[in-house]
Amino acid sequence: MINERVKNSVTGNTEGFLDSIKRRESDINQPCVCNACVTCTAAGPKCKPVHLEKNNRQVEICDLSELTRKDIKLAVPFEKCMKTADGKCDGTTTYIEGREWQMADESRSHGPGLEPLNHLTAYMVCMKGPGIIYFTSAGQGLKLFVNNYAFETGDMKLSENGKELVKGFELSIEIIEAWDLGEFDKNGNLIGIYPYYVFKKDSQGQYISDGGITIGYGHWISQSEYYMQLSEKNIIDQYAFGASFVPPYIPSDGRSYKVPNSKYIPLEEINKIFDDDISVAENAVNDFVSKISDNQVKLNQNQFDALVSFTHQYGVNWWTLTPEKVLPKFIREGKDFDNEVKVRSIFEMHDDKNRREIEAEIFLNGY
To answer: For residues 318 and 288, is the Cβ–Cβ distance under 8 A?
Structure first.
């Protein structure tokens, strides 16, 4: 029996699941894509597949015939999970539904739990994300699963207007042109964005580095993330190899500038990274709303868009960090969503006044 939450997450986002599978099938840059590796629909697009582990050793291709329904342990966690608020994969067997693979070969069973696997059709369900874990060679089989179990879900997604709104907040085309952060073709079309430094004001009103390198529309990578997350390291090494996380100088006007000797990141790659970041923000807002008592709070698309924009900048779990927790209390109560004075005052309690004013307007009146 497939977990209902997984079914719901597949449906309404069938295209996203299939695109996730397609990207993994066609990515020739993965360090290891042998048939003994597994991947997950909830893992980030740059996350490499991982091996299983059995009897305290890594499973290789020659061991596939020995795998059974109960052999579910990963050798290492996936580097990222796009479905959890903290972006981390647990990597344990705790969240695997039924603690077993689905679609084992019942006809060749050697006893309960000892049914051998067909790595072309077997999959297991992680209920934390949720996500579907499958062998890298089994993309076609998983596509069938996605299509078979697709049906309507209550999870909301950021609208196209919302995506353009957040992109404009993070890095408008005018800023890209004025600050020389982009690469343009001969017709003046943006084709890529360079990695760049961002600056903020300290308590004395002086500009300082924000401590990292920013990619595209607000994807921030710190030095610690560079060393701890392979997917982030790969981005920096590919487009700004050897770059310092300490800017060469601090501009007096706080104007961002591209990382010296960096290469522009193609717009297609920029948009994939942005979509992954937005997915994390969407999941965080959906998760927050779903946990409200009796789930009586229903957001409309404009309200959801405003909160996703807020989350993209302020960070997931903002309901535990915001001043005096006024905004989360307001959302939990589910009242006065049309009270202009109250909505505007609550949003404007937070940093970046101009952005908060626009988000409040979207929350109240839409685009």
So the answer is: no
CA distances from 262 to 194, 195, 231, 348 (A): 7, 7, 18, 37
- Percent of the chain scored above 90 by pLDDT? 44
Structure tokens at 207: 């500009």
For residue 49, what pLDDT band results from cuts at 50, 70 and 90?
confident
Q: What is the pLDDT of residues 220-261, one digit of tens each?
A: 999 999 998 888 999 999 999 999 999 999 999 999 999 999
C-alpha distance across the termini of the chain, in Å = 42
CA distances from 102 to 65, 111, 126, 134, 166 (A): 16, 16, 12, 10, 39
Quote the CA–CA distance of 47 and 40 in Å, as a whole number. 9
CA distance 162 to 316: 17
Give ∠ CA 47-49-53 in degrees, rounded to 5.
130
* Coil vs helix vs strand at 284: helix
- Which residues on adjacent β-strands are paired with residue 68? 116
Q: 298: alpha, beta or left, given left = phi > 0 and alpha = psi -120 to 50?
A: beta
Where do we find the tokens 């920013």? 214
CB 176 within 8 A of CB 193: yes
Cα angle for residues 19, 23, 27 (degrees, 5° grid): 175
Q: Count CB-CB contacts under 10 A for residue 177.
A: 13
Alpha helix segments (H runs only) across 171-266: 173-178, 223-228, 230-239
pTM of this prediction?
0.63
